[in-house]
Automatic annotation (TrEMBL), chain B:
Keyword vocabulary terms for this entry: CBS domain
Alphabetized SMART domains for the sequence: CBS
ACT domain residues: 140-214
Domain CBS residue range list: 7-63, 78-137
Taxon lineage: Bacteria, Bacillati, Bacillota, Bacilli, Bacillales
Keyword Iron: no
Xref: Pfam families: ACT, CBS
Name recorded for this polypeptide: Acetoin utilization protein AcuB
Length: 385, 217
């Protein structure tokens, strides 16, 4: 199955750059794009440039005072003690020149993807520059300044009045987006992530279900540290199918953080490329089944930018454009070019070898615990008969 | 931390002559479980819980409409004397009272038994959550250290060097071994990696899940 899909990209995405030592590195987006280029999976006609989000658009979610602080910070005019209140100038979100423009491009990229799909020009659209799900109304956090998904979903609600299902498979809880729509029954958020017991941000417990009108429309699956492919996919697929059927969305927005992989340095999950084939496949299937194909996907976390993220993100596009993930070997030209920069050996195949996953103690208990969590998660989605 | 920092100061009370029906109504309206009974000088002379009131109410199976039981005065069922606490008591100490006496609420009184506040089990738990720091964004690291003087600054120096803010620190025993302690830190960063590396390099032993080295670094 081939669907009309759009790939949002511009070199400006790489301007979202904190410093050389920072783990968040948008070179990932370029690597993924070049990988697709060299496989001939991406043609010029499919690429659309992002626009810059306007301040009015940012203000759909963010506080104007905060936007102002980000602008000042990017111009070197925000005193460091004034940045603290907004989370600006911390180790996680340091101040860098032009940070307002750079962040506005990422948001604009997601808005471009939204318009592309919701005006019917494409069925699916991908903005790998987006997915900054920790951004808060008036605070930067967890490498995120503006929260593109939250802004985009507000934009969808306002401009198109559709019911949005937000799916977040980043290894960290999608807290910024969840809190943005915590009381909104027209936006359903589902985040699968490593339990917050050890990992940032700490929230995302199964009992966070929304408040007021929005109660029952926030879903969290905080799986255990060292969860592997089988358990991940089992709980993820069951949960997502049931939640989608329960909510009956008009459009799907999926955040595709690629940091649940066993090679990711920041998290304790232990998945392989297998989940990064299945995640887009399922989103694609459900988008066609429930939303007439309307699916917007964004990037997110992912801190092994060499071995994991380019492959994982390319597979999102492959599924969008062709209906299936790529298999076999990676192009030699791409490998040799990036190998020069990479401190680690790049993999040669799309899939991971079996021995990549370390032998994890307590595998049975972890699987058991995740299954129990699933049961608790779906307590309210069972059809009342 | 002192009781005055966590107590609620607006307390729903009743005079001893109020009826059980009034108590029932207040419990439902305010969604509370305890009502201190105070005299005209606002001194605590008793306390009733939702259970006391329920015990004194007619059974749901009793279909006779208006029941006289509910018209009895509240002082006929209140518990007395009441164990009370002072605003300057330590939260840690009153936790002990909750634990030992199995109460769920303690009235706070000042000179001559005058009611100034109330602390419930829920307030206690909320305080504990604050102590663990789990209510704010952060990463969690546990370090096993020998139980000896000077160890805490050695460990926290690592955090200071990385300019990482510590949200909370807890110290708890390591199983039954008195020679070790577990230090639990919540730190304000999404990237604990440099700190985990520094701690390892400095020879500290990390606990699950940071004790599994390769390939998770």
């Amino acid at each position: 199955m081939t669907c009309k899909s759009a790939f949002v990209f511009a070199k400006e995405f790489l301007n979202y750059h904190f410093n050389e030592d920072h783990p968040f590195n948008q070179k990932r987006v370029l690597m993924a794009k070049e990988l697709l280029d060299e496989m001939d999976y991406l043609s010029e006609s499919q690429i659309i440039p992002p626009r810059m989000a306007t301040e009015e658009e940012l203000a759909l979610f963010h506080d104007p005072v905060y936007i102002d602080a980000v602008k000042k910070a990017g111009n070197g005019k925000l005193a460091s003690e004034d940045g603290f209140e907004y989370g600006l100038g911390t180790e996680d979100t340091p101040i860098f020149p032009g940070m307002h423009d750079a962040s506005s491009y990422l948001v604009g990229g997601t808005l471009t993807a939204v318009d592309e799909v919701l005006t019917g020009k494409s069925q699916h659209a991908l903005n790998l520059g987006g997915g900054l799900h920790h951004g808060f109304k008036r605070k930067a956090a967890g490498f995120c300044i503006y929260n593109d998904s939250a802004v985009a979903i507000k934009y969808i609600r306002e401009k198109y009045n559709l019911k949005v299902l937000y799916i977040d498979t980043d290894a960290h809880h999608g807290d910024g987006v969840q809190w943005a729509f915590y009381d909104d029954p027209n936006v359903c958020t589902f985040s699968i992530h490593e339990t917050g017991r050890y990992l940032f941000p700490g929230t995302g417990n199964v009992n966070e279900r929304g408040i007021k009108e929005g109660h029952g429309y926030s879903f969290n699956l905080p799986i255990d540290a060292f969860t592997e492919d089988d358990s991940f996919l089992q709980v993820y697929e069951t949960a997502l199918r049931e939640i989608t059927d329960f909510f009956q969305p008009d459009v799907i927005v999926s955040q595709n953080g690629a940091d649940a992989h066993c090679l990711d340095p920041l998290t304790h999950l232990c998945a392989t490329m297998k989940i990064y084939e299945q995640i887009p496949l399922l989103a694609h299937e459900l988008a066609h089944q429930y939303c007439d194909g309307k699916w917007i996907a964004v990037g997110g976390g992912g801190y092994d930018i060499w071995r994991v993220v380019p492959r994982a993100w390319s597979q999102v596009w492959n599924v969008m454009a062709t209906g299936k993930p790529a298999t076999g070997m990676l192009p030699a030209t791409w490998l040799s070019r990036w190998q020069q920069q990479s401190p680690v050996n790049l993999p040669s195949y799309w899939h991971d070898p079996d021995d990549i996953v370390p032998n994890i103690p307590r595998k049975t208990e972890i699987t058991e615990k995740n299954a129990k969590l699933l049961e608790s998660l779906l307590k309210y989605t069972k059809k009342r008969t | 931390m002192l009781v005055e920092e966590i107590m609620k100061t607006s307390v729903v009370t009743l005079p001893p002559t109020a009826t059980i029906a009034e108590a029932l109504q207040l419990l439902q309206k305010h969604r509370i479980r305890h009502i201190p009974i105070v005299n005209e000088e606002y001194q605590v002379i008793g306390i009733v819980s939702d259970r006391d009131v329920r015990d004194a109410s007619p059974s749901v199976f009793d279909t006779n409409s208006i029941s006289e039981e509910l018209e009895n005065e509240i002082q006929t069922i209140m518990s007395t004397p009441v164990i009370t606490i002072h605003p300057l008591d330590f939260v840690e100490e009153i936790a002990r009272v909750f634990y030992d006496e199995e109460f769920a609420a303690l009235p706070v009184v000042r000179d001559n038994n005058k009611l100034v506040g109330i602390v419930t089990e829920k307030d206690m738990l909320h305080t504990l959550i604050q102590l663990t720091g789990t209510h704010t964004q952060g990463s969690h690291i546990e370090v096993k250290v020998p139980h000896r003087p000077g160890i805490l600054p050695e460990v926290t120096a690592v955090f200071g060097k990385r300019k990482t803010n510590i949200i909370s620190v807890l110290v708890y025993p390591f199983k039954n071994d008195p020679n070790y302690k577990i230090l639990v830190f919540r730190i304000q960063t999404m990237n604990p990696l440099p700190i985990i590396n520094d701690l390892r390099t400095a020879g500290f032993e990390l606990m699950w899940p940071n004790n599994v080295p390769e390939p998770k670094l």
